[in-house]
Amino acid sequence: MPLLSWIQPRAAAFVAAYLALWAAATAYLGAKGADWTLPTISLGVFGAALPLLSIALTRSAAPPPIAVRRPRLELWALLAFLVLYAVGFLGWGMSATRAAVPAGREQELLVLAVKLVVHVGAPALLLALLGAKIAPLFNSGLGRPGFWLPLLVLGAIILALMCVVSPALDEIKALRASIATLLWAAPATFIWLALEAGLCEEFLFRAVLQTRLAAVLKTEAGAVATGAVLFALAHVPGLYLRGHPGVDGYSTDPVQVIAFTIAVLSPVALLFGTLWARTRSLLLIVLLHAAVDVLPNMNDFVRTWTG
Predict the structure, then answer these.
(1) Taking the CB of the first residue and of the last residue of the chain, which one, N or C, has fewer CB atoms within 10 A?
(2) How far apart (Å, rounded) are the C-alpha atoms in residues 37 and 221?
């Protein structure tokens, strides 16, 4: 997929609109006295540098086309689902799920099962009822060009970044866990997060939603930018209703919460959206999503499963 196909006037208009929205959100955070450096770093690294690198790394990729029979109907149905998902599940359902079982292993297993049903099972069923084919969305791309190189290069960069920008290594060190424990906990944490975070979010927002956006908007870059904004906005109810002081992005001002999600979360979605558009490999973006989350979450995983 040549780079020039990404910078046609129609695509450029969506990219410009996204940048204007991101700038407005970041300016609002600054005006409220909130941190504006994190959004800048997020856009520079996840929204620009890594997507550009991913385009270079996937020059040989040949993503298979995914047919969307009724683009507008499927997209509107998914947008309605996302409203219910954001308000009903992220805003209330997650709290209700955790409240159903005491904290611990059983709770984590329940949360994983519910997340898979909501993020994968429900949208897949919705599309099936609309006559869409589901199997192409799960194409791993494992044997196609453009899989291993971005996985290895971007995966290494992401892990290195997490070592620098997060306190994860200090938290893992503070566990005083044995080498034997860390040897099984590291891959177990990665697999867990590949399912709980990677598969759930990437299937819903990239494989399902972004594919429909691209079919309606007639531009992959526009679908990436629009999908990134919708990904951010979907997190607003959960952060506003379930957040609390000390949680990144939480505020009693709903506009500030919206600004935070757009300024900080949407650039991360640009990276995964670009990789989906370039490769149509769900496995690739699931694994890289897990690479983002594995180190910051290993501390809690070890405490849960060894306590």
Answers:
(1) C
(2) 25
- The whole-angstrom separation of Cα 15 and Cα 6 is 10
- C-alpha 269/C-alpha 274 separation (Å) is 8
Q: What is the DSSP letter of 145?
A: T
Q: Which two tokens stand for residue 49?
A: 């540098």
Using CA atoms, how far apart are residues 175 and 178, in angstroms rounded to an integer?
Answer: 9
Angstrom distance (rounded) from CA 207 to CA 178: 39
Number of H helices, E strands in the chain: 17, 0
Contact at 8 Å (CB) between 99 and 182? no
Nearest Cα neighbor of 261 from 224, 297, 228 is: 228
Mean pLDDT, residues 142-150 taken together: 94
> Tokens representing 29?
């955070």
Nearest-angstrom CA–CA distance, 209 and 229: 12
Is the CA virtual torsion 226, 229, 231, 236 positive or negative? negative
Structure-token pair, residue 180: 């034997």
Report which DSSP code applies to 117.
I
Residue-wise pLDDT for 21-71, tens only, equals 999 999 999 999 998 999 999 999 999 999 999 999 999 999 999 999 999
CB 202 within 8 A of CB 282: yes
